[in-house]
Design brief:
This protein has 124 residues and is an alpha+beta fold. Helices cover 27% and strands 22% of the residues. Strands 2-3-1-4-5 form a 5-stranded antiparallel sheet, covered by helices on one side. The two termini are 15 Å apart.
């Protein structure tokens, strides 16, 4: 893992977990190692069938991000941003807690990933 490689996490929550997810989101927002914290989306969006929010960071912060999510008791998908959106969300992914069945049909095909541009090159 390169320390400057772009990563992000999808932190999942249900209605009972929403308060804990909000606290974790606020904590991430105060952490200078975190590049971006997305809005809480209380419904499925894209390949993610349940409520979630995104956290963008560099590889150097990966262990700390994973530890914070685990400590909060939430489940999440942590993955790199490469040129293979499908691999990012499957074979390159690290699940915290029970995996969520993603709708991989909406992901960019290999080699055509718009992940980094879609999320803003300036974020990294």
């Amino acid at each position: 893992m390169q320390s400057d490689a772009p990563y992000h996490a999808h932190v999942y929550y249900d209605s009972a977990e929403r308060p804990a997810a909000a606290v974790l989101r606020d904590d991430f927002g105060r952490d200078p190692a975190i590049l971006f914290v997305g809005a809480m989306i209380d419904r499925g969006v894209g390949p993610h069938p349940i409520a979630q929010y995104e956290v963008h960071f560099l590889g150097a912060a990966r262990a700390a991000v994973i530890a914070a999510i685990e400590a909060a008791g939430l489940r999440a998908l942590v993955h790199p941003l490469t040129d293979d959106d499908l691999a990012d969300h499957t074979s390159l992914a690290h699940w915290i807690g029970a995996p969520v069945e993603l709708d991989v049909t909406v992901l960019d095909p290999p080699g055509v990933n718009q992940g980094i541009p879609r999320f803003g090159v300036s974020d990294f």
